[in-house]
Design goal:
By secondary structure, this protein is of the alpha/beta class. The protein has a single domain, classed as Rossmann fold. The chain has 6 helices and 7 strands. Strand 1, helix 2 and strand 2 form a beta-alpha-beta unit.
């Protein structure tokens, strides 16, 4: 998707070990940037595959913060507004995703595309079903646990 859409700014939410971040970065166009968000610094995350050299060219940046918290979200609102693609692979805890999507709905301009991961995980079913924006379940083309694509542009 990143190779085809050629987004200038991709934001990944829920970095964990960093495998998705490194894959997203690999397919960025020259000049593209990837900013990842998580609650735990990458050096402290068990099993992290990210190394200092992955940040050397400046195309990958890491931020720490809970974007379900409205105050933290507001601190990063300009960055989130500038994104071309959001890749959300967060905790699926029944709290984060609904709160994050509510915060996202409050922006004056939101990322045109949101990839919501694991939409078929039990905790995510009601969140996915509650989304009223144009969306498509791409599980057959994505991950077995569910891959959803949402056109989040303001209506």
């Amino acid at each position: 998707m990143v190779a085809v859409l050629a987004p200038r700014l991709v934001i990944e939410i829920g970095t964990a070990e960093g495998l998705s971040a490194l894959t997203l970065k690999k397919y960025l166009q020259p000049g593209g940037q990837l900013v990842t968000f998580d609650l735990i610094p990458w050096r402290e995350y068990p099993g992290s595959v990210v190394v200092p050299g992955d940040f050397a060219d400046g195309r990958l940046k890491r931020r720490i913060g809970d974007l379900a918290d409205p105050g933290v979200f507001q601190q990063h609102a300009d960055l989130l507004t500038a994104a071309d693609l959001l890749f959300v692979d967060a905790p699926k805890d029944g709290r984060f995703e609904p709160a994050f999507l509510k915060n996202l709905g409050g922006l004056s301009r939101s990322a045109p595309l949101v990839v919501l991961y694991d939409i078929r995980v039990w905790n995510m079913l009601s969140t996915w079903r509650a989304i009223t924006k144009p969306k498509i379940d791409l599980t057959s083309f994505g991950h077995w646990s569910g891959t959803g694509l949402i056109e989040w542009c303001m209506q």
